[in-house]
Amino acid sequence: MTKKSGLRATASAVVFALTASTAMADDVEVLHWWTSGGEAAAVGVLKDDLETKGVGWKDMPVAGGGGGDAMTVLRARVVAGDAPTAAQMLGFDIKDWASTTGKLGNLNAVAEKEGWDAVVPPALQEFSKHDGNWIAAPVNVHSTNWVWISKSALDAAGGKAPETWDELITVLDAMRANGITPLAHGGQAWQDATIFDAVVLGIGADFYKAAFIDMDEDALGGAQMVEAFDRMATLRTYVDDNFSGRDWNLASAMVIEGTAGMQMMGDWAKGEFLKAGQVPGEDFVCIRFPGTQGKVTFNSDQFVMFDQGGASEAQMAMAASVMNPTFQSAFNVVKGSVPARTDVSDAAFDDCGKKGMADFAEANAAGGLYGSMAHGHANPAAVKNAIYDVVTAHFNGEYDSATAAEELVNAVLAAQ
Ligand code: GAL
């Protein structure tokens, strides 16, 4: 080979390498479980934002509320050596992936450049960092202790939003008397557990913390837990006969259509009401689960990046986008959640969103912020799944309340 042709060969190799790496940098493949109407609309906001930055979106949706199925698919892909670029992940799953696999990309470069430390509350950083390094970008904060009520069904039931457990039961009874399904629910373990978050918090914030975060045996098996299960059994009497297996967004649709009175669900449900063209205060009402005002059981959707032998440009661009304050406003307005950053204005949010942001700030300041058990922010997946099993078995009548509380202690001890 002459010197000249050797140079040419080298130059084309460089061009090829650049083209190849640019092609890789241009795309992100994102595994997520945002497949309902409202969720898909929120994904659209992210996808469009990335496209304006020249980052293409390869969609990897895995249906199944709460993300259990998505985590199963993710594990299979990573084991097969085919990790996606990025994945939606919750709470203790992030900690678990970071500490056991070493496969999560380090986001410190972008986090430092964009000052994440100063704007992400410590309760979220707890899940976004591992060994002091940023390994996840939090896109939002959801909370589980909400009730979504049809305005017309509430008006027909006396018009007053319930503030206590007893008032809640009065409204549910009135809705039943009016001939509708009082409580729209989908019988899936994570949905049962989502209601359980709110019921346990409603009995007492200290009790919630002792049972789910400290995993204290006395709290898990004591009189307050029996009472929590009794309340679940009471709520069970207000669901329709076809609740088993129903997806959460179909339960939302029952409230939207007015065939059911209310749904007890995290604020991703608001995304469904908005997608259907409904307006808070006019068509539906959002309240904190009675007895939990001022307290928040939260979960934060975060994106982890799988290490591809160093971070790709597209991964860094995605992390920066996810954390951009303008984007966090636009995305969360659609998603039903509130920004993960503390410096985003509430101006673009509807009344439920403004309330969600104020509640989060208030709970954060007053120590009333608790990780959601149902959505992986109170304890590791094995414990969470053990709690799910007992809650669902009880909800379906397999255990009475006293037995369920005993089983809860056994299940949590065995899972640790
Ligand atoms: C939650 C997640 C939300 C929403 C919901 C229903 O775990 O944080 O973003 O998608 O599941 O799928």
Short synopsis of the structure:
With 416 residues, this protein is of the alpha/beta class. 54% of the residues lie in helices and 13% in strands.
Annotate the secondary structure layout:
Elements: H1 3-25, E1 27-32, H2 37-52, E2 56-61, H3 68-79, E3 86-90, H4 91-101, H5 108-114, H6 116-119, H7 122-128, E4 129-130, E5 133-134, E6 137-138, E7 142-143, E8 146-150, H8 151-156, H9 165-177, E9 181-183, H10 189-203, H11 205-213, H12 217-221, H13 223-236, H14 248-257, E10 260-264, H15 269-275, E11 284-288, E12 296-299, E13 301-305, H16 313-322, H17 325-335, H18 351-366, E14 369-371, H19 381-395, H20 401-415
Parallel strand pairs: 1-2, 1-3, 9-10, 12-14
Antiparallel strand pairs: 3-13, 4-5, 6-13, 7-12, 8-10, 8-11
